[in-house]
Amino acid sequence: MRKPVITPKASRSRSRFHLSGPILALIVTTVLAAALSARASLVLECGFGSLHQKAGTLFHGKCLERKEVVDGKPLPYTEYTFEVIQAVKGCKDRQGKVMKTITIRHAGTTKGRPRTDGLVEVPLRFGVPEYKVGEEVVLFLTRESRLGLCAPVGLSQGKFSVVRKDRKLFVKNPKGRTLFQTVDTASFKELARDEEKALTSGEKLIELRCFLSLCSKLTAR
């Protein structure tokens, strides 16, 4: 009887590709950045009512400090500290007192992260508005995410620059009449004459005092 011939199994060569920590982190960050950028490009139009409803924090403030953290985890971010000049919504500490300053973090930086080989990575930008030290704004900010980040509601739509004209302070209103188009006057409490005019006139500049009053009266209701 012939002995069976045993053919040895062909050995399988397995090629393994390992990603180092920095490379993997860069890939994850880049993919997340692309996803956020795509989301930013699909931002819906927001009227005054939507801005107010979606805002977790709303205040008039002055930027005191700006710091870019290019090696932030998991995303590079820019940290801003604001003096709270007038609080409207979400500006209280755990004891219920209105905070004198607020520190927020927005995703993205204008500078790239330096690498060990001497090169500098391309900065990640997410379409989030930026602020200069000394700039005054009225901000409608989203609630803070699990990553500790926030942004103006509707990105640039939630940032209202404050300017001075004829010794008075005004808020820039790029939307004009459409800002208040979808909000009913009945949603406000006890409107003054100048506030009613601001809702219907479509002016590109609204007196700051009047604008903040509208914000507060919508909150009250």
Polypeptide structure, described:
The chain is 22% helix and 24% strand. With 221 residues, it is α+β, with helices and mostly antiparallel strands. It has one domain. Strands 3-2-1-4-5-6-7 form a 7-stranded antiparallel beta sheet. A hairpin with a 2-residue loop joins β5 and β6 (168-172). The relative contact order is 0.16. Mean pLDDT is 85; it is low at 10-31 and 33-41.
Cross-sheet strand order for the largest sheet: 3-2-1-4-5-6-7
Mean pLDDT across all amino acids: 85
Class derived from helix and strand content:
alpha+beta
Unreliable parts: 10-31, 33-41
State Rg: 25 Å
Secondary structure: number of strands: 7
Helical fraction: 10-25%
Question: What are the main properties of this structure?
Answer:
221 residues; 4 helices; single chain; alpha+beta
